[in-house]
Amino acid sequence: MAKYYTEPSRTFSEFLLIPNLTEREHTPDRVNLATPIAKYKRGETPKLSLHIPFSSAVMQAVSDHNMAVALARSGGVSFIFGSQSIEDQADMVRKVKSFKAGFVVSRSNLTPDHTLADVQALKRQTGHSTVAITDDGTPNGELLGIVTSRDYRESRDAPDKPIHSFMTPFASLVCGRSGMTLPEANDLIWERKLNCLPIVDDNQHLEHLVFRKDYDGHKEYPLQLLDANKSYIAGAGINSRDYAERVPALVEAGADILVIDASDGYSEWQRDTIAFVKANFDIPIGAGNVVDREGFLYLVEAGADFVKVGIGGGSICITREQKGIGRGQASALIEVAEARDAYFEETGVYVPICSDGGIVHDYHITLALAMGADFVMMGRYFARFDESPTRKLKVGNNFVKEFWGEGSNRARNWQRYDSGGKENLLFEEGVDSYVPYAGSLQENLDKTLGKIKSTMCNCGATSIEELQRKARITLVSATSLVEGGAHDVMIKDTGLSGE
Ligand SMILES: NC(=O)C1=CN([C@@H]2O[C@H](COP(=O)(O)OP(=O)(O)OC[C@H]3O[C@@H](n4cnc5c(N)ncnc54)[C@H](O)[C@@H]3O)[C@@H](O)[C@H]2O)C=CC1
Ligand SMILES: O=c1[nH]c(=O)c2[nH+]cn([C@@H]3O[C@H](COP(=O)(O)O)[C@@H](O)[C@H]3O)c2[nH]1
Ligand SMILES: [K+]
């Protein structure tokens, strides 16, 4: 006979935190959100930790190299999507690892034979007023000069004036050499009163530009997540099929942490994948997803460094409808967190858990942490930002960004070209959608982190560990849910003309 659970499975919106005494020292500026993401023994320092408990989902529409840089700069980690060729994924990892803060690849480039009109058109398009002039008009061509708005007079100069007649030529430029550090570049910018320092190699090929206005950049990102060589930490998603080829390429590219990306991680495929990685490499590997104690312990015994929790709760997920597997995200997390704590108690080994999918409101993150998650993984949340890889479109009067599930045909299509996969899935487990465009990652993150810290202070906690120890969590009845929103008032429409 089947085993029946007596409790229904529940989700975040059914719970609330009850405040504890807030003492004087419980202020948001004192809250530390550092959190482990790889297993460690009691008393030891975790091998890898985040400065904020956020990771971005292993999805085409979310985690490419740009998102990875932006999130690592803010203290979290991206797991670069694996639904692409091994070479392309390794390339993205390489881009993150070789990214040098303050050193930007020139985004506005022309040749000396272009004209002033081309400069103006490019400026309108990119918003950058510094244009690198290279022999072939590429960002890494031979540097022949620079054009800034100080080199021409829009009102007087003819639009067809060729760039070589008014650019600041290479011979008159102050340039930095390849391999220079950011402080060295900044010193040069300061001493020579420059706005922009081109960095060139021995053959006069342009590598990067360093801008004066980015000078204080490092101060803006006090939480940035770096390795010992001061490169950003990069994660990558893998699968339980081509790992023997994919993992070596990702490790070689410099990945710092891996995760097996699948809907259901309670499988011998995942056990074998973990065994392969552990036998051949010294890199932390997470596995999942699971929704119960058994699944968690199976992956831990198999050697997983962290375990991801959640089946079917994601915003674009239709797994529960299609296959009838899954569990309310809160119930899954609560059971796995209990198993993790018991395992720690018994063995002295702490295995971090990640709550993956289904975060709708910022407070859901705080709840997930309070329920025992060490960090969360989010897709929809990050898909809305400038830094996500998808197109920004105008639909009606609103800007949106595209967002599709990894189980949708759209995401799976790469296999048709890369590994001879099936034309179409037998059935899709994800949808193709839009999410409202929300601006930059940093702006949104600041707001979200502000809310989390504020709630933690209500709960008398200045660390995630303290929150987990002290949190008091209550179920809310369907009726009291209504009480939690605005009710029994007429909400004013803003922007309407008066009657
Ligand atoms: N978290 C969630 O609720 C869900 C996530 N997704 C996402 O969709 C993507 C695809 O997920 P899945 O379909 O679970 O991928 P998957 O490819 O790991 O699993 C698909 C099927 O292949 C089987 N399989 C795995 N490795 C195998 C091997 N080496 N040999 C033979 N069979 C093997 C699995 O048991 C499963 O039946 C992932 O990005 C995942 O995160 C999809 C659905 C739900
Ligand atoms: O059923 C699914 N079909 C899909 O196509 C799909 N793609 C991603 N995922 C999972 O959803 C998580 C992101 O969820 P959110 O957007 O809610 O943050 C992700 O982190 C995944 O766990 C999928 N689940
Ligand atoms: K299974």
Automatic annotation (TrEMBL):
Enzyme Commission number: 1.1.1.205
InterPro entries: Aldolase_TIM, CBS_dom, CBS_dom_sf, IMP_DH, IMP_DH/GMP_Rdtase_CS, IMP_DH_GMPRt
Chain segments annotated as coiled-coil in the UniProt record: none
GO molecular function: IMP dehydrogenase activity; metal ion binding
Reaction catalyzed: IMP + NAD(+) + H2O = XMP + NADH + H(+)
NCBIfam families per the UniProt record, alphabetical: PRK07107.1
The protein's name in its UniProt record: IMP dehydrogenase
Organism the protein comes from: Cohnella nanjingensis
